[in-house]
Amino acid sequence: MKTVGDIFIEADEDHIHLNTGKSAEVKLVYVHEGVRPVSKGRTELVNPRYFVSVDNEADDLWADVADYLYSTYRCSQAAIHISGDGASWIKGGLNFFPKASYHLDKFHVFKSVTGASFGNKRLRNDILAALYAKDFDTIRGLYQNAYQSKQKLSDRKTVSEGLFYLENNFDEIDLTPAHSCAAEGHVSHVLSARLSSRPMGWSIEGAGRIANLRAFYFNGGEFRNLVRRKNTKKEPVQYSMRVHENYRPSNINPLSARVVGLDGITDGFSAILRSILKRK
Question: Looking at the domain assignment, is residue 97 inside a domain?
């Protein structure tokens, strides 16, 4: 097992439309050892690992993350950091890593403060300065003044919800460079690019298959080992699989196979899949 100083766990979710007219969440958790520069202005995660789930309950997802971390790292010798937007399912990761520290995602902090400021840059800067200083009394006063200055009920609701959000997560807010989180961008890149950036409706099963394929790909999986074609008159079969640690390419029968939902999609990830699946 590896010994590292810090382990970072970041989480967020993508919201998708179902073919029933309802909506669902696809949860993403990824772990890494930190960030390193690769070129001017660009960085990359060190040894990232991605996990996804479309289940309403997050315990199974966190169990997968815990299995991976405890079998890969000497977690007792590392500082574990969990970051997210404050959702209860993300904070649930603390049940699996009791000694971990939780940090509220800076993106959502800035988003909340900007929304409650309604374009007032001075107010926004004053709130952020108070957050840096951990001065919640000043923050409460600024929000109360902003609330009183609004006449529309919807504007007042935005301000009060913004204060409630900061108040509920105040102890986890750290705006210093020591803690950062890019979960929003990773959700967009790993999940939204395929699942929600275009108008489409999913079944839970189909969304789960595609989400797991995305995770498999970004974990460095090789699709030529996942899908093997042979001459056969059998109809193409569909299957779902649990990737990550339980996945073993050698356990998959070499049947003709297809992946649901690739037709009409032009992003690079799906193009790779189609080229493999159509190869004779």
Answer: yes
- The answer to whether 184 touches 12, Cβ cutoff 8 Å, is yes
Give the relative orientation of helices 136-149 and 121-132 as an angle to the nearest 10 degrees: 160
Angle at 97 between CA 93 and CA 99, to 5 degrees: 125
Q: Rounded distance, CA 279 to CA 274, Å?
A: 8
Structural domain including 263 reads 223-277
213 is a domain residue: no
pLDDT for the residue 92? 93
pTM for the complete prediction?
0.75
The rounded distance, in Å, linking the Cα atoms of 214 and 23 is 20
Minimum mean pLDDT range among 138-152, 214-228, 239-253? 239-253
Please indicate, yes or no, whether residues 38 and 132 belong to a single structural domain of this protein: no
Nearest one of 212, 232, 231, 230 to 273, comparing CA atoms: 212
Residues 6+ away with beta carbon under 8 Å from 227: 252, 257, 259, 276, 277
Burial degree of 152 (CB within 10 A; 0-12, 13-18, 19+):
exposed
Strand order in the sheet with 79-84: 49-53, 23-32, 6-17, 79-84, 101-104
